[in-house]
Specification:
homodimer; alpha/beta; eight-stranded mixed beta sheet; 14 helices; disordered C terminus
């Protein structure tokens, strides 16, 4: 038995007056997702615990059975690994986004108007930077998807413990502060503030940005590092659970987690991490990966992006596209031989434009799964689901159990308990 | 107020194509069990936690309110106590099954074709054995039910930390290994391997086995010890909860747990631990025990045995027999004075032939229990139950609460919490 896990990032939401008090999932009428719910058992997922809003890194770790409270070393480490950077133990890594600042370094656009292809050319300008504040530190920047990228500071005496936060409208970009009194944190904060200023000087008058200004688009005139972290370490998924896994994702963050879990990363042309991503290409890639893997995880970033933008129509559109992806998958697999699990890792209500702790619908289908009466995949329909409310950490055990590989009560050598789920 | 707990071992299952996608519980149409569900509140039980597949020992401990992570010392200890052996602190005890091996000690039948009465005579051959590898060790073997028995090694410097696993088709029987570098583990592994070889030499040409061979039945030509453990210790049930308990069970394992909990053990003629067990005799015994006990636990092993054999018809048959037992009980007790709780300790899907972590239906009836709308006792019906998903460790607190003896919030003298549910 094999399994496919489909994660719609931030797909969960609330009922919206604009949608006649339906949620985006309800308004999208995703008939294939509904079909999965009809064929399986549904419930509501709390990636960590009720009331806790996770980042997608935290939620994905939990969903894959890793305890974020034990393995999480900051977002940047996962991003860098996912971007293909061979991270060293001494490195400090950051997510690093193109944004727009004014002359006082106040953020006026959090992602430079969602700059896309032009970011590739701009990124070439940010190579071989030397820092005055930390001349022994190597600066590695890599653009990944559109405005997104990764920054790695390589050298001794560095620390992720600095106030480098996700770009937020109205915040000052170049005021990153150390969060402890160590030399390492002070040095890293200084290096980051200098990095931000250098990128501004390099980018602000670049021809691409001059053209963007002429078109009324915000210039990508700065790079803002955030979510610092050290090199993480995960026990391989096959060692933990005996399953060979593959990952179909655009987002570096998710690729990084899966790469660290020793899952195979399937790159998909046309997977953009945005609403315009090619979900059918992702379905095809997943179906191919399923041939020689036990577990395939498909992650679609789009719903979260639309939600952060407050874009209701965009969220409904990407849900419909995920629904087509689900349709392609269920048309091409047998539920006698495969389980299919559909979930949102967390809610990102479009009205709030940020991650929340609202429970999200989850459904699992397979020929021997005892079906419940839920026939819709939505936040509301899942209230009546047979799974009840479950936590992220139980997802892998539940799925492995269905696959005939239950986690057995563990009796260690000293005959007193060890593993507690 | 008194209570009866009825446990159908491994009674939970999945929907089966052979049963038109019903579960064995649904297909059996157990009208008395359904009546208990109708009269009470239902839910789904995870003996330990979601995704964890327990043995029946682990599950029963949890159901009786004992934390297996604290009290579990291996299966063998409970089996030996249940078989009536006065276990000493230095003893190491094993479940020990008649099986069939070929000349290379490869297991070709895990339970010697479920040998029954003939095992009693064969067991008389396995007495006063002397071991060359551990000449100071006393060897105590006791047959219990059919192919099942108990082996106790009595002596100094012994350890349960050896690789003695449940007999499995195709495995080599006489290759038990120490699981640590201690002298004790090495000595015990050597003793067990020698024991296995001796039993083979004693049993292989016994007239009973010659007759079995002539009839085309697998000879019970070896004894295989597994599930080693030390003497366990449980705080008596009446000290923990103030209730006087009785146990109606065939399986030594369950008897052992209940005996250690200082419950009275009621032996029932005709209780075989198999599908052919006399469930009505068990009902009568339980009704008698109820007269001078507060809590009577009835355990029926049959569904688990049928499930391990992959026997769908057998599983449905024993469910129907348990249903008759339930019918006899509800006809003879008043729900004004008694609560009746019906559950499966875990699922043993007949297709998988092993314990899994699938949640199992539980229902509690009593005249003042707030009824839900569930009117069937099944995995599917329980999805809508008012109890939701509960864990084994909450069963006793829930039952005692109904009985008017709630576990009270415990504030110890140092004003920090102690008992955590």
């Amino acid at each position: 038995m094999k399994a496919i896990i489909i994660i719609g990032d931030g797909m969960g939401d609330r009922q919206l007056s604009e949608l006649n008090y339906l949620t985006p999932l309800e308004a999208a009428k995703p008939k294939n997702m509904d079909n999965v719910a009809l064929l399986g058992v549904s419930g509501l997922l709390h990636a960590i615990s009720p009331g806790v809003a996770p980042g997608s890194d935290i939620a994905t770790l939990a969903i894959l059975g890793y305890d974020p409270y034990r393995v999480y070393t900051g977002r940047g480490g996962f991003e860098a690994i996912g971007a293909g950077i061979e991270l060293r133990d001494e490195d400090v890594a950051f997510r690093c986004d193109f944004a727009t600042v004014n002359e006082d370094f106040i953020i006026v656009d959090e992602n430079a108007g969602r700059i896309r292809e032009e970011a590739v050319e701009l990124a070439t300008q940010i190579q071989d930077l030397k820092l005055r504040t930390a001349s022994d530190v190597e600066v590695i920047f890599k653009q990944t998807l559109g405005f997104k990228g990764v920054l790695v500071l390589r050298g001794e005496r560095l620390s992720p413990n600095v106030s480098a936060c996700k770009p937020k409208l109205g915040n000052q970009a170049d005021l990153i502060k150390p969060l402890d009194r160590s030399l390492e944190a002070k040095r890293t904060a200084d290096a980051l503030n200098e990095f931000i200023k250098i990128t501004y000087n390099v980018l602000k008058d670049h021809p691409i940005n001059q053209k963007r200004r002429l078109k009324g688009k915000p210039p990508a005139n700065v790079l803002i590092p955030w979510g610092g972290g050290k090199r993480p370490s995960l026990k391989p998924l096959y060692e933990r659970y005996g399953v060979k896994g593959a990952c179909v994702a655009a987002a570096s963050l998710i690729k990084g987690i899966c790469k660290l879990a020793c899952m195979d990363i399937v790159d998909v042309p046309g997977a953009t991490g945005e609403v315009d991503t090619n979900t059918i290409a992702k379905a095809d890639a997943a179906l191919r990966a399923l041939k020689d893997h036990d577990l395939v995880l498909i992650h679609v970033e789009g719903p979260d992006e639309a939600s952060h933008d407050g874009d209701i129509a965009g969220k409904i559109l990407i849900i419909k596209k995920i629904d087509s992806m689900v349709g392609t998958i269920i048309k091409n697999i047998s539920l006698e031989e495969n389980y299919i699990m559909l979930l949102a890792d967390h809610a990102t209500p479009v009205k709030l434009k940020k991650h929340t702790a609202d429970p999200t619908p989850i459904t699992i289908a397979g020929s021997d799964v005892v079906r419940d009466e839920v026939s819709r995949y939505s936040e509301r329909a899942a209230y009546k689901g047979g799974l009840g409310h479950i936590r992220g950490k139980y997802i892998m055990p539940i799925l492995l159990n269905l696959m005939g590989r239950p986690v057995e009560f563990d009796i260690p050598s000293n005959l007193t308990g060890r593993v507690r789920l």
